[in-house]
Amino acid sequence: MLPPSSRDFLTRDLPLTWRAQRTPHKMFLRSILSPQVLRAVRAAPATPAAAPLSTSAPSLGLTTGGGSDAAAPPILPKQQMQDFMSVFPDLVRDIAFDEAYKDFPRGTVDRHLTRCIQYTVPKGKKNRGLTVPASLRILRPDLASDREAMREACVLGWCVEFLQAYLLVADDLMDGSETRRGQACWHKVDGVGLAAFNDAIILEQSVYVFLKKYFSEKPYYLHLVDEFRAVNRHTAVGQALDLLSAQLRTEDGRVDVDAFDMKRYNAIVLHKTSYYSIYLPVVLAMRAAGIEGAESYHRARNILLQMGKLFQVQDDYLDVFGDPTTTGKVGTDIQDGKCSWVIVVAMQRANKEHKEILREHYGRVQEESVAKVKAVFDELKIKKVYKQYEETTYSGIMEMIQQTPGEGKILPPKVFTAFLDRIYKRDY
Known about the structure:
This protein is mainly alpha-helical. The protein has one domain: Orthogonal Bundle (Farnesyl Diphosphate Synthase), CATH 1.10.600. It has 17 helices and two strands. It has helices at about 20-30, 35-45, 80-95, 110-120, 125-140, 145-175, 195-215, 220-245, 260-290, 295-320, 325, 335, 340-350, 350-360, 365-380, 380-400, 415-425, and strands at about 180, 185. A two-stranded antiparallel sheet has the order 1-2. The chain starts with about 20 loop residues before the first helix and ends in a 5-residue tail after the last helix.
């Protein structure tokens, strides 16, 4: 049974050893939780009976026009977004104030973990996490009015966001990135440094803490654990291939761009991105909806992994051509020598002169080299090729969705199109 989130969460249900210290505990949490989360907590109902979770239909406000993150409509209506945010403080407390570590000096690890979670988990667009409750409403409209079921879906959504935070912290460390989501990467924050590696481990392990606490009595608990473990492994192996590809060097030490082909790229994308970004949120909702049968999961997997590839190709394109003020990240794929869609397509289209420039300058950090690489991309009309690819891929995925058997009774088309339409032509 999930504990209700309410505006008095800052003082309720504290471990017995801390109840005598409610006031400083409350002040401490207020000092480190962001105003965004505090507003969500204060706006939440005082008791479960006072105001049930929003039961409106999943009007996701999704369009096919893309647009910047600031201009795009929210993935959920305001009330449903508030419901989602109101769960977050409970999860912060589950990790930062775990009674198993009550012997730790107060204000040390608890403060650091709260700061880490607050800094790394809720700052993004939360599309992956929000997709879980949104998908459950589509798969099981009858559960939209079930307060406990929807709160559990929100917890699963936050599990995906914690997994995402862990992956991003680790990725930024390995890439030596400077910014993420419009702010300094966690390892670049004063006093953090390489300790971010340990924080990433804690973020990842938090997922299994939540699954055990909130779902261990559910018949699909082991399926949830298996899904997260499998997706985590896929992502780690995909990241390994990505890193090893960036280390491919010629005899004179340059990035071996000739080794970057579509077969290698597709393998990286499938494992590093598609599983956790697109497949995982929907399959979690399917488990929570009680959907059984291998065929349904096989069909969903095929569609979702194709959507995942489109999502990663978009990321690769935006890394080079996107506006950092919109994407929230300064692209470094060229400097890092990444095996991205942009360089793979460029090498496919390049003439001898273009290839020599790319061989000489791709993977170098100097601004002059980056400029020369981008100039080749412009000459090869990569922007036009990308737009054609996006259109063709979108149409192909829509055809797959329309061919799903069962007249959409088990897997309604909207469970796929809700997210697909949101990322189509995105610039964030």
